[in-house]
Specification:
130 residues, mainly alpha, 7 helices, globular
């Protein structure tokens, strides 16, 4: 599922947590993803942040396992929260999550995640205006 190089970005405990069937474990792993993305952004390491988002999308959101998909969605949401006002740099990567559905339908979780993302994005934009 993940390569050795990917494990350098996300610790194995995080990848296991995102794959777990228990929601609380996925949530804890997502909080760790948020911390990692915040640390990377504090160092202005946007290349690594992009790798984290790509890893979440390709290895989790697009996985066949429903628990992995859920873990990927909550991980992407956590990354978006960690990006805060810098979310505009990664909009295309994050929106791609919601557009990569082979059946061209959105599940309830996809819609809920998309709504949360766009609501947060709008709040950030409104904050810049003042």
């Amino acid at each position: 599922m993940t390569t050795q190089q990917d494990n350098a970005i996300l610790p194995i405990t995080v990848t296991r947590g995102l794959n777990d069937r228990v929601y609380e474990k996925r949530k804890l792993a997502a909080l760790e993803v948020e911390r990692i993305v915040r640390d990377l952004m504090s160092r202005n390491d946007t290349k690594q942040v992009k790798r984290v988002i790509d890893l979440l999308v390709n290895s989790f959101v697009l996985a066949q396992n429903p628990n992995s998909k859920k873990g990927g969605l909550i991980g992407v949401a956590a990354a978006a929260i960690a990006l805060g006002k810098d979310i505009g740099l990664f909009v295309s990567e994050i929106v791609r999550v919601f557009l990569r559905n082979e059946r061209y339908t959105l599940s309830f979780l996809d819609c809920l995640s998309a709504f949360g993302f766009f609501f947060f994005r709008r709040a950030v934009e409104e904050q810049r205006m003042f």
